[in-house]
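ligand=4'-deoxy-4'-aminopyridoxal-5'-phosphate
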Amino acid sequence: MTRVFNFSPGPATLPEAVLRQAADEMLDWHGSGMSVMEMSHRGKEFIAIHAEAEQLARELLGIPQNYKVLFMQGGAIGENAIVPLNLIGRSAGSGQARGKADYVVTGDWSKKSAKEAAKYGTVNIAASGEAGKFMSIPKRADWKLDTGASYVHICSNETIGGVQFHSFPDVGNVPLVADMSSDIMSRPIDVNRFGLIYAGAQKNMGPSGVTLVVVRDDLLGHALPACPSAFDYKLQAESDSMFNTPPTYSIYIAGLVFKHMKQQGGLKAIEEHNRAKAKILYDYLDESKFFRNPVAKEDRSLMNVPFKLKDEALDDSFLRGAQARGMIQLKGHRSVGGMRASIYNAMPVEGVKALVAYMKDFEAQHA
Ligand code: PMP
């Protein structure tokens, strides 16, 4: 068996140790005589798996007791609707038909979030990096926030454009909501700074199918009447994410990934590893005369590194050569072209070194 270096933006590479453990436990989980996939979500085995996954997520992220941890379905695109369905009504005082929220647009994903939210309330684009082609994050001082907004939404890491918040904005008393799909658990964060965090699992946490939602208690109970019950945070919180059948297998794998992260030393150690990996790639991109990354240095993502070749006619040849060396999924998103290396937690430093070695060879051949 040979495993490739998989630079996919998601679903993405997972720790090999986790996959091996899942394979070992596939037919008979801990002597239960069942696969996790076959268990009742209300049986004692799965209740234990679920509780452990939640406990580990709490430990890793340092989630305070006044926040609920929910394992939801619908992915981050689902959350683009679920967040406003639950929160945007908070600001609607008597006589106000619609609630309102602030959105900071830093790339394709937050743009999509803002567009979806506008179905459920009034969306104010507090800042947008679009005029600069999303190559940097608009400075906090230039944001036009509305103190009456129900929440301020940001995307902590734009998976397509490769820009990332390296510190989080102060938005006063308005709850900060973050889509952390592509950088959750890649570094320590102070959860107290947020009202709500959501993230699809399929980059740093596990397989697709489960969305982690961390929500502060006071934000529960404000859902619009039209909010589907299965997407009502309060109902899900009251039933321990079991208002409907949860994505049991995805939660189980996420739990194994969390345990693996803890064994690696937690998020501080993981952040150091991620910084070291990204530095190898960015240092080379900055010295290369053939490849370049266009993002403002201070806003560059440690997770998704887009880059362009000097001559895009060579893109296909670059991708074929990478594939031949066991490196896959390097093609950039169709909206920006070029290449993108996604180097999430589970990408080993060897993968990044192999990529840079190949890029050097390619540059020497074609420069
Ligand atoms: N937000 C971000 C930052 C993402 O990277 C993605 C997926 N690439 C999404 C939202 C959408 O996630 P999903 O397809 O799981 O709904």
